[in-house]
Hints:
The protein is α/β, with parallel strands linked by helices.
Amino acid sequence: MAKVYVFDHPLIQHKLTYIRDKETGTKDFRELVDEVATLMAFEITRDMSLEEVEIETPIGLMKSKVLSGKKIGIIPILRAGIGMVDGILKLIPAAKVGHVGLYRDPKTLQPIEYYVKLPSDVEERDFIVIDPMLATGGSAIEAINSLKKRGATHIKFMCLVAAPEGVKALQDAHPDVDIYIAALDEKLNDHGYIVPGLGDAGDRLFGTK
Length: 209
Ligand code: URA
């Protein structure tokens, strides 16, 4: 079963409070999401593997560690996931960025993929799928299906706010994908919004309505 990690670092919780506040405008919302994404990237990369190399400091020889594991791919789910990309790239600047776009079929309400563009070396990368909100879990599940169909094997999912319904659906569909969140909220409302959540993440990031 996939593990769920809630990042309750005080800086993340502090910034999340202002992200949630409806008085926070687009500029501040965008900046805060970017900052929280950087902080979450710091936590989510804790298990990256290291190897020893020998270097020479101005004083002498030493063995020191550098990253040795697979390279990273970041996959924002369009469109709100884009708001978290730059924050992650600040810590992992060499990561490649793929995109997955989904729309909801009005009849079946199922997410359908309309755009997928991934790095060419899918099998060789560890992927972090990002979306600020994990609500029903439908988009996250479908985005991860899209990646797996194309050969991805190591995938993590990261979001700001999750509903218990979405966490359970994602765990059931993808038991191999660990979930990293800044806050686990109460529930979904009848319109599929997370309560208390932060509203529509895409609209708040891009200033649309
Ligand atoms: N997507 C959002 O942007 N907000 C929610 O509360 C749920 C899904």
